[in-house]
TrEMBL record:
PANTHER family: 23S RRNA-SPECIFIC ENDONUCLEASE VAPC20 (PTHR42188:SF1). Residues 2-122 form the PIN domain. InterPro entries: PIN-like_dom_sf, PIN_dom, VapC20-like. One of its GO terms (biological process) is rRNA catabolic process. This is Predicted nucleic acid-binding protein, contains PIN domain. GO terms for molecular function: RNA endonuclease activity. It comes from the Bacteria. The lineage of its organism: Bacteria, Bacillati, Bacillota, Clostridia, Eubacteriales.
């Protein structure tokens, strides 16, 4: 999952709002849950706070129903390798942590509109 996908779900004026809802419905039909890392939780809170205000960010944290997978020290080391290799494009460290956690968990699909996930080799929201 990616913070931009969460924002798209919550903000009706976002260009990816309708595709995000469709992607979430597909995941629900598959009985799949998006997995957030603890890094992504922090990034999403910051994004929502900046764009929608701190009350909206707190509400999302309070009502988040998706599991949070804590990044391990090994995930963080792997994220550094990914980031420095350039294989993830211009991804952020948070994205690289998500890549590492997804690799560890054997997850091949990301609920995201960030092309860096596809560039790294994951299926993305459009292909869910």
């Amino acid at each position: 999952m990616d913070s931009g996908a969460v924002f798209a779900l919550l903000c009706r004026s976002d260009k990816n709002h309708a595709p995000a809802l469709a992607g979430l419905r597909k995941l629900q039909k598959q009985r799949a849950l998006p997995v957030l890392t603890n890094y992504l939780l922090a990034e999403t809170h910051a994004l929502l706070s900046a764009r929608l205000g701190p009350d909206a960010a707190r509400m999302w944290v309070r009502h988040n129903i998706w599991p949070v997978e804590r990044a391990t020290e090994e995930d963080e080391k792997r994220a550094r390798e990914i980031l420095l290799s350039g294989r993830g494009g211009d991804c952020t460290f948070t994205d690289a942590v998500s890549f590492a956690v997804m690799e560890r968990l054997g997850v091949d699909t990301a609920f995201t509109f960030d092309e860096n996930f596809a560039r790294y080799g994951f299926n993305t929201a459009e292909t869910v």
